[in-house]
Amino acid sequence: MVKNPKIICVTGGKGGTGKTLVAVNLATMFKNEGFKTILIDGDSENPNTYLLLGGKLGIRESVPFFKPSINENKCTKCGICADNCVPHALLHVKDSFPVPILAVCSGCKLCFKICPTVAIEPDYKTIGWVYNLNVREIELLVGELKPGEARSASIIEALIEKLEKKVQEGKEEYDVVIIDTAPGAHCDVEELIEKADYVIPVTEPTKFGLSDLVRINELISLLHKDFRVIINRSTLLGYKNQFFNEIKNLNLEILGRIPLHEEVVNSYCIGVPLMEDKKSQEEMGPAYKAFKDIYENVKKWIEI
Amino acid sequence: MDKVVVGIVSGKGGVGKTTLTASIAALASKDHDLNPIILDCDVDAPNLSIILPNNSESQPQTKDAYTTIKASFILEKCVHCKQCIDEHYCEFNAISWDKRNEIPIVDFLKCEGCGACKTLCPEHAFDIHSVKSGEIISYENKFGSLLIYGKTRLGSTTSGKLVSEVKEFAKSSDHYKDSNLTLIDGPPGIGCPVISMLSGINYIIAITEPTPSGLHDLIRILELVKQFQIPFSIVVNKANLKSPFQKKFKKYIKKTKYKILGKIDFDYSIPEAMSYAEPVVTFAPDSPASIEIKKIYKNLKKQLNNF
């Protein structure tokens, strides 16, 4: 029987709140305790996990995306394909061959399915890549969107498919899957939250952080997921009191608070996760301690 | 200078797009020859309105956007043939089979609105409709300029189209004919919403920070900006960050010879201003950050005179 790993999704709505920082350090702490951990970078527009881990992207697999190809020997220029294409991704002028407009093609393959003379043939273009690598004993799956391409959702699908295949194959018995998402609350983020058992929104104590937290929480609730919040840069003043009052009013559970500290910036910039080194009590900075507490809280929560 | 559109982007989130946009908006609003219109195109997490609220006299106007199409199922027409499932009509796996009732169910979140089910079902038991995908809100902000922003309805899979709609809304507003500058706060990333935002833009400011991810994401967004052949310049935020990455960052900037519009050193007036939700140039006008942003604004105006 295949063992089902615990799937944790780190997200947050607003950009730059520390999603990747949290995902990478959580993965590091699980790895340190001997849990077989796989980290999924689902921010295909800007994948950064491997930078924080100090790794290099290597071998990659292309993510293909459907594009219609018109076989002019078979096409009767009837225009049925264009008439039925809702996003208007096929341009048809009377008595001429239809012209695909790839930028707006949804990939639904309707044209291919309905062409009466089978003149539309499925062709594929590369819209991005999936990488599989190991850094610091953490397995990493990274999705990357090719600049200029818009269908990031297909990269996410390819990532999920790859993950599911790996878990099913059972070559490795994964204990924990940690997913890092893009900012925002769009389809890519939604799809990854959907896959998770536990969701961690990372936010900061500003009006902006709060506003985006409220939105992402709505999305998480819409998907019926269990979630707890991490507050990064928790020492930012100004809006702090109102922020924590609001959190209380919203009845949100907090996994921990990470203070703004030099050790975080430093680890971020040298590509070594803060939690990679085992430190003695005296060597631990405030952010390090915060991460330790968060880790213990996460373990209790997911019962591992 | 005549009706230019300036966009602020970064690739990476949280490096200072909104901070910079809000301050430039506050400065430009006082320039009567510009009469700017400010747009927030980060429709997933629109935050500019928090820092540029409406003035006491103006009433925000809200318009619903219907940029999303979704499929619906018509029970009366269904003959339970199950072809929709067996022949895999839906490439997005949005149609599943309800075994108990012998009918298909359309998953609202997964549906792309492509209309394949509608066309393929022999009984015409599917239809497609425009559904509400978000809102466009506009008002005169406290600095006197018009602010327009979009906000997606969760689960509507439409961010890119809503961005286009926000831009169209700006063009059709009464202010547009007297306005010479449209300033856009962009979404993070390089995907669909950013691509929608970039079309029709005259000038881009790419803001970044001297960290590995800041630079990595800057390179990616510039690749996209270059594909669109839009002139651009760079603002370095947290320029004096105590970062072991500074050397590599500076080397890159030097090597590429990109135009630097300004460098904002880290200064506590910025997080402080943000925590009070004020543009730093009005919250602490004499702080080093504000002085630098005013310089950036002057440099920007020089650049725009070429248009």
Could you describe the 3D structure shown?
- The complex is a heterodimer of chains A (304) and B (307).
- Chain A has 304 residues and is an alpha/beta fold.
- Chain A has helices at 19-32, 49-52, 80-84, 110-114, 152-169, 187-195, 207-222, 240-249, 262-270, 286-302, and strands at residues 6-11, 37-42, 60-70, 90-91, 99-100, 120-135, 138-145, 176-181, 198-203, 226-227, 229-232, 254-258.
- In chain A, strands 1, 2, 3, 6, 7, 8, 9, 10, 11 and 12 form a 10-stranded mixed beta sheet that branches. In chain A, strands 4-5 form a two-stranded antiparallel ribbon.
- In chain A, helix 8 (240-249) links the parallel strand 11 (229-232) and strand 12 (254-258).
- The mean pLDDT of chain A is 94.
- Chain B is of the alpha/beta class and 307 residues long.
- Chain B folds into 2 domains: 4-64 and 135-304, Rossmann fold (3-Layer(aba) Sandwich), CATH 3.40.50.300; 68-131, Alpha-Beta Plaits, CATH 3.30.70.
- Chain B has helices at 17-29, 48-51, 83-86, 116-120, 159-172, 192-198, 212-227, 246-256, 269-275, 280-283, 288-304; strands at 4-9, 37-40, 61-65, 68-73, 95-98, 103-106, 126-131, 134-140, 146-152, 181-185, 203-208, 232-237, 260-264.
- A 9-stranded mixed beta sheet of chain B has the order 3-8-9-2-10-1-11-12-13, sandwiched between helices. Chain B has a two-stranded antiparallel ribbon with strand order 4-7.
- In chain B, helix 1 packs across helix 11 and helix 5 (159-172) runs parallel beside helix 6.
- Chain B starts with a strand and ends with a helix.
- Chains A and B meet through helix 4, helix 6, helix 7 and helix 9 of A and helix 4, helix 6, helix 7 and helix 9 of B.
